[in-house]
């Protein structure tokens, strides 16, 4: 099994990385392959709503979104980590996620998702909610922990002193591991849920 962890911080080994790395250790203990990929330090433009991905099967802007898409397709679970900027996720990360989720044609049903957020003090809950929406629109079960998945620290490295936050990350990783393994057994015995033909309606006709 594989988990892909997305680091949305511009700092390679800052507080967001500390949270993700704490989870990575647990995944490996659970026999799950885990990889952390940093996107927050890259230049990533937002979606242009051009619709080109529907014809190409990938985004028309050929950058790290298309490079990471195959890893997303292969993984059983996805963890998104972000620092908090103005009670929101890093804008670079949001541009990356908008394009990654919209441009990838593969079925994401039953891939397990989890988000983790890092901040000095506030804005954690709103950022956490913002990131979870990518999972819930894609048929991805959302893993939970023992609290909102957050960790505190201002200067790089300070999150290593947040004992409760680190415990939350470990608990989340264990719960996520259990959920992924359970889904794998369920898929083997029952398959994926039946899908109806999609009905798209507009508010204005």
Structure description:
This protein starts with a strand and ends in a 15-residue tail after the last helix. The chain contains six helices and six strands. It is 41% helix and 17% strand. The chain is α/β, with parallel strands linked by helices and 205 residues long. 39% of the residues are buried. The longest helix has 28 residues, at 163-190. The radius of gyration is 17 Å and the shape is globular. Strands 1, 2, 3, 4, 5 and 6 form a six-stranded mixed beta sheet that branches.
Structural class based on helices, strands and sheet pairing: alpha/beta
CATH class: Alpha Beta
Order of helices and strands: EHEHHEEHEHEH
Q: Give the low-confidence spans.
A: none
Strand element count: 6
The shape is: globular
Helix content percent band: 40-55%
Main sheet attributes: strand count, strand direction, barrel closure: 6 strands, mixed
Which strand-content bin applies to the residues?
15-25%
What is the fold named in CATH at topology level?
Answer: Rossmann fold
The N- and C-terminal alpha carbons lie at a distance of 46 Å
CATH homologous superfamily heading = Flavodoxin domain
Average pLDDT reading? 96
- The tally of domains stands at 1
Instruction: Report the C-alpha radius of gyration, rounded.
Output: 17 Å
- Figure out the total of helices: 6
The CATH architecture can be named as 3-Layer(aba) Sandwich
């Amino acid at each position: 099994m594989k988990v892909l962890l997305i680091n949305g911080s511009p700092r390679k080994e800052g507080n967001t990385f500390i949270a993700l790395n704490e989870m990575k250790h647990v995944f490996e203990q659970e026999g799950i392959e885990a990889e952390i990929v940093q996107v927050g330090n890259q230049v990533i433009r937002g979606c242009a709503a051009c619709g080109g991905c529907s014809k190409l099967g990938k985004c028309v802007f050929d950058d790290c979104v298309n490079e990471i898409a195959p890893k997303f397709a292969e993984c059983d679970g996805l963890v998104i980590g972000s620092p908090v900027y103005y009670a929101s996720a890093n804008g670079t990360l949001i541009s990356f996620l908008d394009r990654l989720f919209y441009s990838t044609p593969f079925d994401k049903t039953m891939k397990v998702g989890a988000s983790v957020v890092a901040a000095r003090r506030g804005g954690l809950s709103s950022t956490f909610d913002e990131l979870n929406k990518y999972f819930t629109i894609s048929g991805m079960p959302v893993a939970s922990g023992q609290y909102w998945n957050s960790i505190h620290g201002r200067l790089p490295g300070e999150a290593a002193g947040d004992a409760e936050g680190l415990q939350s990350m470990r608990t989340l990783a264990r719960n996520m591991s259990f959920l992924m393994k359970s889904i794998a057994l369920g898929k083997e015995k029952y398959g994926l849920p039946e899908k109806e033909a999609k009905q798209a309606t507009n508010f204005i006709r």
